[in-house]
Amino acid sequence: MGKVHVFDHPLIQHKLSMMRNKDTGSKDFRELLEEIAMLMVYEVTRDLPTEEVEVETPICKAKTRMLSGKAIGLVPILRAGLGMVDAVMTLVPNAKVGHIGLYRDPETLQPVPYYCKLPADANERELLVLDPMLATGGSAAAGIQLLKDHGCHHIRLINLIAAPQGVERVQQQHPDVDIYIAAMDEKLNDHAYIVPGLGDAGDRLFGTK
Prior knowledge:
Layout: E1 4-6, H1 10-20, H2 26-44, E2 50-56, E3 61-67, E4 72-78, H3 85-91, E5 96-97, E6 99-104, E7 111-117, E8 126-130, E9 133-134, H4 138-149, E10 155-162, H5 164-173, E11 178-184, E12 187-188, E13 194-195, H6 201-206
Parallel strand pairs: 1-11, 4-5, 4-6, 4-8, 8-10, 9-10, 10-11
Antiparallel strand pairs: 2-3, 6-7, 12-13
Helix pairs in contact: 1-2, 2-3
């Protein structure tokens, strides 16, 4: 079963509290989302393998360490996941970015993919799926399945806020995927919004509501 990692770092919790505030405007919301994403990915990538290399400093030659092994790929789930991409690219500028778009069928209420564009070598990369909210888990589980259908197997899911139902769904459908979150909230309401949550992340991010 994939692990659930909850980051309780004081800086993350402070910034997340500001994002939850209904009076926080889109500009500040975007900046806070980027800052939290950067702090989270710093921890998510802690176990990436490194190898010894030799570099020449202004003083002498030295043995140091650099990343080795699989390269990184970012896969934001449209549209709110876009708000996390630039921050991660700041830390991992050589990462390639794919995109997954999903909508909810009004009759079945199941997620339906409408867009999927991935790097040609996505199946060779360590993929970080980005989406601020993990509510029902439907979109995340469907997005991860799309990646697997394209031959990808090294996948991690990064969310700011999760509901227990979303975590359970992803773990049931994708027990091999680790989940990284900044907060595990109480529940979902009747409209499938996370409680207490922070509202619709996409609307707040892009000022569409």
